[in-house]
Every structure is written in structure tokens, then in C-alpha cells.
Amino acid sequence: MVIRGRRRVGKSRLVAECAKGRKFLPFAGIGPEPGRGMTAQDQRNAFAHQLAKHFQLPSMTFHDWLEAFYALEHYLTEEPTVILFDEISWMADQDPTFVGKLKLWWDSVESRNCPWILVLCGSVSIWIEENIIKSTAMFGRISLRIDLQPLRLPECGEFLREIGFKGSVYEQYKLLAVMGGIPWYLKCIDPQQMANENIERLCFTPGGLLEKEFIEIFHDLFSPRGTLHRKIVEALLEGMKTVKEIREIGNLSDNGAIGKGLEDLIISGFVTKHAQWSLKSRKPAKQSLYRLSDCYLRFYLKYIASGHRPSENSYGFQVESLLLQNRELLCEAIGIRKEDIVADNPYLQTQTKHRKGCQVDYLIQTRTNNLFVCEFKFQKRELGTDMIEEIERKIERLAVPRGHAVVPVLFHIGGVSPELEEERYFYRIIDMEKFLSG
């Protein structure tokens, strides 16, 4: 099995939970220390130490990974066993023969038909993609692959209820707008504090658990190319951009490095690629847009790094990112079947001589020629009929193909006035509270 996913998303915990009822043998690579890289022998020594601890053995030393793997096999029994190689990119660091030797050993293990499961796991998804998933040595040997995603909104709501958080729906969304659905971040919430207190303690207090998390992410995942990746995410701070715009904002050279950097960030779960499309032809556009989709990363760059506390109006864009990670819930709430969707994404219509520019929070085009224009509103106050004028101005700019209907949809958190409901302008008015209740 191969499991990859964003740092802190719960990969190791998932394996440990699934291993219940079986013997569980976790081994973890050790991360590089500041100012000192780890050698291949350092990693083998760490493996030897963990092996000795699992089986209560005296200290041992391995000078080759095959020697280490066969030593592990020597102590395995016919008992169903789950073996976890966690942070495998670190484990394999500095030894280009690691994957080949792992393949050689596992081939010999498989021939014995023993009830053993080997799980390869790590946060450095780029390394796993290039060295395990795309490796010819591993071709045909991966029985199951999991790209572990953050918790969905209903699961986040359940998590908050489980820890006893008493805040309002608005308070819950405020926390999730910073932390996304990352279990380790949510676990840091103090249920005896409201959202602002938790955010202040975790993000803006020296030594807070999320104050330096960004630095650790970039050191662990992208070193030594972290400077490029940081410039890319900073260029995406204020919204979706093309590769050309990223290059210009970051003052980056046109040498292909941006494309590789974007691929790294997408695989790692921090950036999403939004395919623009022609509403008329329904075909993909030549240029794609890239979006900083990770809630914490954007919050860190926008507020923690600058030391500027966010205002109450600052969380709207954060919540938008959170909702777009849960788009299947959005479509279900509207009543759109997955098979009826032609394309769905945040939509940016560029200005030309013949049309005005506009941006839609979330646009869904269906096979039945409907364009669902979705607006997200994260406000405590009740929304009034002025919302109609706001959406109308946006729709007037949208180049709607002949034969298509525009269907406005409103997602809100603070309620809507009776007057707005009576207008029956929106096809659906959806209270986002329902997403947290499951």
C-alpha cells in the first residue's frame, strides 16, 4: 500500500487505526536537522533502533538496507502483521539504491504468501510520486494507493462536537477557515476558548503551534527549492493566477522551474489547478488558473507572517477555499447530479473589447444548459435584498451562450431577511450550517 497526503492530515494515524487486531510495526525515517543533513547510515541506525525496540533486542547496526530488511523479516511470524515505513522519503534519503533493494526484498516476501501488509507512507508526496508510484521497480506491486484528503465539513463538525466546542456555527467556520480539515490542527483547539482566543493562542502567540508550522512545512517538503515554492504561493495570495501572472508577480525567470514548482505544490495538496473552459464550446481554455487552496498556508502568509490580525471581514476568502474543498456537498445541496456536470470551478472571465470581465465564486455548467452562479457569503448579519443587485451586476457581465439559463444560488451563514426570501430570486438559498451537521 502507498499512502500520501499533506503534512498533519493523519496518514500514520489512519494506518494505526486500520492495523488494530493485527501486529503493528511502525518504522519512521528521521527528518533533516537544521544545518546538518542526515546520512544514509543515520537512517539505517534509526531503523535498527526501532527494530530492536519492537522486538526487545540488543542494539544492532546495518551497513546496507537489504541487510536491514532481511533482519526485519527474520523476526516476523505467521501472525497477520502491518509494517509501516513512515516518512519513507527521509528513510531513503542519500541512498539511491533504497527503492531497488526494497523491491528485491518484498518480491522474496510475497513469494512466501505470508499475511503481511507493507505500507509506504509520507508527507513528501513529490518524492513518493517520482520514486514509488512512477518507479518501474514498483510497477504492478502496489495493491492500494490512497491520497488522503483533509476531513470534509461534516466530519469537521463531528470533530468539533466530539471535543466539546460550544461556539456558534459562525465560530466553527472561523476556526475551519484557518485550519481547514487538518485533524492535527483541529486537535489543537481548546474547547474552553472561542475562535478568536484559539486563533490568537495558536497563530499569533510566540511558540504557538501554528506560528512556525509554515516554516516546518517548507523545510521538510521543499528544501532546498523552498524559495521558488514560497514565491509561487505568495503570488497566489490574492487569488487565482495564470503561469504568466505568477512569473511576473514573483519576478521569476521563464526556465520551466515554475511548472515544476506548481506540480510539486499541487501534488503536496497546497495549490489546485482550475481548468478554465469556454461556456460556448464547453472545451478547456488554453490557459489554466492556479489557486492557493490550503486554508492554513494562505492565513499564514496573509496574517501570521505579517503580524496583522485579520478583521471580521477577512475570513470570506478563507471560507471560500474551505467550501471549494467540499464541492460535492455544494452540488448535492443544490440538487445537481455529478454525471450532469460539464465543468465546475471558480470562474474568471477576462475583459476583452467585446465583453466585460467578471469573477464567479463557483460556476457550474450542466449538460442541460444551465449555468449555476454560486455566491458565498460569510457574514454574521442577515442578508437583505441588496444581494439581488450584487448578483445581477455580476450576471450582466457574464457572456452567457445562447440557449443557456443563468441560475443564481446563495450560500450563507448569517441568515437571510424575509424580504429576500419573498423575492424568490435565488434558485436555492443554502444555510452552510447544514454542512457541519452532516
What do you see in this structure?
- The chain is α/β, with parallel strands linked by helices and 438 residues long.
- The protein has three domains: 2-148, P-loop containing nucleotide triphosphate hydrolases (Rossmann fold); 153-316, Orthogonal Bundle (Arc Repressor Mutant, subunit A); 326-437, Trna Endonuclease, Chain: A, domain 1.
- The protein has 20 helices and twelve strands.
- It has helices at residues 11-18, 40-55, 65-74, 88-91, 98-110, 125-133, 153-163, 169-179, 183-187, 195-204, 213-222, 226-235, 243-250, 257-267, 295-304, 316-324, 327-334, 386-397, 418-423, 433-437, and strands at 2-5, 23-28, 81-86, 116-122, 145-148, 271-277, 284-292, 341-349, 358-366, 370-377, 405-412, 428-431.
- The chain has a five-stranded parallel β-sheet, with helices on both faces. Strands 8-9-10-11-12 form a five-stranded mixed β-sheet.
- Strand 11, helix 19 (418-423) and strand 12 (428-431) form a beta-alpha-beta unit.
- Helix 12 packs across helix 13.
- It is globular, with a radius of gyration of 25 Å.
- The two termini are 30 Å apart.
- The model has no long low-confidence stretch (mean pLDDT 92).
